[in-house]
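Example 9 (inverse folding). The structure is encoded as follows.
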């Protein structure tokens, strides 16, 4: 930082066993954004990193994230930029793979994206859907929001409440894992259904109450975004 005082962000790719020290050092250096691409981060290490960042006013994205990309402006992560084009759809996802596919589908339809953010697929993550929704609501470059959720946790239900109370822009959502059996982890560490909590249906119902359009597949998301932008 002494050599590059203008730097305001850091990104880590180091293996999980070494991430804690690397993260605390980066956060303590005076940056404002920290991205953890690393997956398989021990639960307590993730908690320590995020708590330390919050005390220092540093925004954390991840762990287990593809990062954040604003096409034509910045990239902090591993998004394949050839799938992305500048535009007005703000994408937020718990899955890197889903965000790639969503960007590719939107770009195929000549619909650009303002920013793509993967919050990460672990049980404990830094920036969540709620913070992103508020940012996209205030962002002049974003006209439509796309939320790509999945089973497990309550992030989507909490986001639905924020959308219902605070958001004026249209939101289109896709929730994957509708057939996930209770108690079984589906891919991400955070994608686990426990009894009635974290089910696809509970998320879909909450989002519908917030007047969010629920798509059944990726193509339907892009089709509905196209309809909104053509109004």
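The amino acid assigned to each position is listed next.
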């Amino acid at each position: 930082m002494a050599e590059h005082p203008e730097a305001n962000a850091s990104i880590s790719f180091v293996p999980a066993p070494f991430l804690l020290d690397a993260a605390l050092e980066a956060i303590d250096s005076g940056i404002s954004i920290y991205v953890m691409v690393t997956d398989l981060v021990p639960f307590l290490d993730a908690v320590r990193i995020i708590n330390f960042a919050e005390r220092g006013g540093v925004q954390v994205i991840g762990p287990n994230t593809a990062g954040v990309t604003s096409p034509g402006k910045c990239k902090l992560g591993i998004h394949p930029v050839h799938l992305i084009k500048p535009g007005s759809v703000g994408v937020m996802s718990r899955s890197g793979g889903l965000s790639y596919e969503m960007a590719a589908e939107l770009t195929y339809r000549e619909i650009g994206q303002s920013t793509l953010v993967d919050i990460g697929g672990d049980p404990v993550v830094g920036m969540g859907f709620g913070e992103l929704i508020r940012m996209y609501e205030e962002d002049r470059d974003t006209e439509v929001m796309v939320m790509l959720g999945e089973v497990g946790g309550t992030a989507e239900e909490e986001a639905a409440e924020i959308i219902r109370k605070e958001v004026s822009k249209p939101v289109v959502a896709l929730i994957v894992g509708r057939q996930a059996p209770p108690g079984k982890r589906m891919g991400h560490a955070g994608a686990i259904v426990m009894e009635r909590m974290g089910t696809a249906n509970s998320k879909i119902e909450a989002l519908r109450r917030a007047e969010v359009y629920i798509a059944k597949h990726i193509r339907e998301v892009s089709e509905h975004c196209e309809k909104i932008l053509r109004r």
